[in-house]
Amino acid sequence: MTATKKINANGTEISVLLQGNENDYICLTDMARFKDQQRTNYIIQNWMRSRTTIEYLGVWEQLHNPRFKSIEFDAFRQQAKKLNMRDTASINELVVLSNLESINAELIKQNMPRDLRFDILQRIAKEQLRVLDEQNADHRFKKLTSN
Is the pTM of this model over 0.90? Predict the structure, then answer.
């Protein structure tokens, strides 16, 4: 028997699908909506790109999907590792990525086409990294020469 129940977490209703056994499901969309009502889809996209989420999904599939194709999943997991820059990014790159997410959201609100958004974001990323790297180099130089 399947039933849907709502739980209250810090004032936010989150749906839970109760299967009557240990296979209950919680609504990730409701959880993401709690974090940011305007950008729920981006929150979920970021979760789905996370290396730990992909690893979790692989384990879940192995346990619950008798037709799970582990070889194909390994190829997918390796590709995802290449795409997740945050795992190996410098602090400057992380700052720029954070900025780009906000800028991208604003460009999407303006209905800007994806190709144009990409060009704009790429230009902004290069400029921000250049400025941050120059400031870090200047700071290191001043520190070395002041001793």
Answer: no
